[in-house]
Amino acid sequence: MKQLRVVVLAHEDLVPPESVEGLTPKQMQPFKTEFAVSDTLRKLGHQVHVLGVSHDLMPIRRLVEGWEADVVFNLLMEFQDVGAYQAHVVSYLELLRVPYTGCNSLGIQLSRDKALSKKILLHHRIPTARFAVFPRGRLVRGLAGLSFPLIVKSVDEEASLGISQASVVSDAVKLRERVAFIHESVGSDALAEEYIEGRELTVSVLGNDRLTTLPPWELSFKSLPEGSLPIATARAKFDLEYQKRVGLTTGAAQNLSPPLAKRIDRVARRVYRELGLSGYARLDLRVTPQDEVTVIEANATPDIASDEDFADSAEKAGIQYPQLLQRILNLALAYQPRWKTG
Asked: Over 80: is that where the pLDDT of 1 sits?
């Protein structure tokens, strides 16, 4: 295996220490992905430089060109404190003509905009929940034939930002309240989509042209309080104490019939291709009690920490974490952006 010069690109507040000895899981939580990736890449024999950035692109150029980096392992989830700007950083990497891991800039933009991605999926007859968008500064009027309950979320933020149990609404009054919350607290347009009852599954995908789908993963709650719904809220994703309290677990989805498993795989591949994704991504699905598969959204920049669902699903498929990261590097080097083909 060739030794590579790898720039691990992260937010400046998430540059990990060289050692995490003595740190608790809670202390490691903010930078656990950055540490897992950089530490594993070094153990694979690569030269690694972790670069933290926030508001200035120039340090990226100086390091990439001055160090003659072979590839950038991109873990940057926002730029100038704006999540949607992560796609622009990827565009900048393409202008620098350096290979990078993860999704291309267009795929990130299409998948981040939940309304636009749903329109694309509906155009290609890929099942997704019916929805409406409520722009900031406008009154909530009409539901375009939508049926309650609805789940209200940001139209373009990730990591369940702004999602809680209160996000699921059952009448027009609660809808207006939650839309106003998204407008004011998150600062984005609001998307309301019909809430789909069923199992919450994710499918992780690797590839550029040839795709590998990993085993479907399921989110389960064993001790939800009465009246609560099994949804991936921000607390469910990041609050370790809350996870213990509600008995949140994730693991390989069980009892999927062969026809259902095949349908899930086919839907995942179609979504990946129609949204123009590359490198790796995670697709969020709901499976109803009638085994109907509905796409909730696509995440072009999923968490790839060694203990997160993507890596766990890869391990279930026989791909150990070091192999997974090496495979992601190989996909980055093999990807054909316009500067390589034109």
From this structure: no
